[in-house]
Write a structure and sequence with these properties.
Layout lengths: L14 E9 L2 E6 L8 E4 L6 E3 L2 E3 L6 E5 L8 E5 L5 E4 L9 E5 L3 E7 L6 H14 L2 E7 L7 H9 L6 E4 L9 H4 L7 E5 L6 H9 L23 E4 L5 E4 L12 H7 L1 H7 L16 H8 L4 H46 L2
Helix pairs in contact: 1-5, 5-6
Length: 348
């Protein structure tokens, strides 16, 4: 009788690793120099956070983490997080002012919007602002071009609000317009796809991967889609690139700065720079170049309203963040004071 072979040990992974998927209490990672390897599960501390500089933060897909495993009997564990080159960030959905990092260390943000039903220009502007804020390069992808009679004309309309950004209309079933996107897939290039449910992100990911790596779903009767992606995951693509597919976004809280807004609304920013007063509120002030452009029709009222709404939202989120930082600083000083008094009481 031969003895049964011992069960195979899970692959051992140490050193710099890329996060493929982030779950509660654990991560799936691959070696940073072999993104096509089979993912390995590694544990997190009890709080689910990872050291980054002087703080602790939740890891996300695309992060570069340092993994330690002293020996085969000890489970692999995430020791620290490497600084993020770029970060796609949205405002948290709850009461906390902490933003949520959707993806880290990405090079290209694919803003995915459907052509059927008609594209939502305000949503494109919102997602472009998030993309510019991330530090990555935004690219607009208009899906379902095979379902509309004039995809080129509709793409031109979207290009009118996506200033300085490449806009591509694609029809995945026919392969229409996919080649410019495939040209982005260089070795080591990381992309992230963001957009609403039903925009065809998972179908697009499958086309770029050359195989079915994400489930796809049918549209509802009103043209809107159901969620087919329920988590964020790093997917290997052709040419050595990787892509993060994200769940459909119904509402995106804005985390932006003045530079990101100016990049998205470069035309409005140029007008505002010509106003007579530096602190012009663009309402009824004399010499307001923005109001003059509105009245003459040179600036579209919808775009102006979108700019004001996103600027107001970004300012509100910044105030929340400042309040949180101030509260953390007060708490830090309280802890330091308590420790000082405790040390004084225990001195001989």
């Amino acid at each position: 009788m031969t003895s049964a072979e011992p069960p195979a040990r899970p692959a051992r992974v140490t050193g710099p690793c890329r996060v493929v998927r982030a779950d509660r209490g654990a991560l799936l990672v691959v070696p940073a120099d072999d993104l096509g390897a089979a993912p390995v599960r590694v544990g997190l501390d009890r709080d689910g956070l990872v050291p980054l500089d002087a703080s602790r933060v939740p890891p996300t897909v695309g992060d570069l983490v340092e993994v330690e495993q002293p020996d085969d009997r000890t489970p692999a564990h995430v020791a620290r997080l490497h600084p993020r080159r770029t970060a796609l960030v949205r405002d948290s959905a709850g009461r906390t002012s902490l933003p949520q990092v959707l993806a880290a260390n990405v090079d290209v943000v694919l803003v995915v919007e459907h052509l059927d039903p008609d594209p939502d220009l305000g949503r494109v502007e919102r997602l472009l602002t998030l993309a510019w804020r991330s530090g990555a390069t935004p690219v607009v992808v208009l899906t379902k071009a095979d379902l509309v009679p004039d995809p080129a004309g509709m793409a031109a309309d979207v290009a009118g609000v996506a200033l300085g950004v490449d806009v591509h209309a694609v029809g995945v079933p026919t392969g229409y317009g996919l080649e410019p996107l495939r040209a982005l897939l260089g070795p080591g290039v990381a992309l992230v796809a963001v957009g609403p449910s039903g925009a065809g992100k998972s179908t697009l990911v499958n086309a770029l991967a050359g195989r079915e790596v994400m489930a796809t779903g049918e549209r509802r009767g009103d043209g809107r889609g159901r969620h087919t992606t329920t988590h964020r995951e790093l997917v290997p693509l052709a040419g050595g690139a990787v892509l993060v597919d994200t769940p459909g976004i119904r509402g995106v809280g804005l985390v932006a700065d003045a530079d990101a807004l100016d990049a998205t609304f470069a035309d409005v920013a140029a007008l505002a720079a010509r106003c007579r007063f530096r602190d012009c509120a663009h309402r009824a002030e004399p010499g307001c170049a923005v109001r003059e452009a509105l009245e003459s029709g040179a600036l579209d009222a919808r775009r102006y309203d979108s700019w004001r709404r996103l600027a107001k939202e970004a300012a509100w989120q910044a105030r929340r963040s400042d309040a949180r930082l101030a509260a953390e600083e007060r708490a830090r000083w309280r802890r330091a004071t308590r420790e000082y008094h405790r040390d004084v009481r225990t001195r001989p």
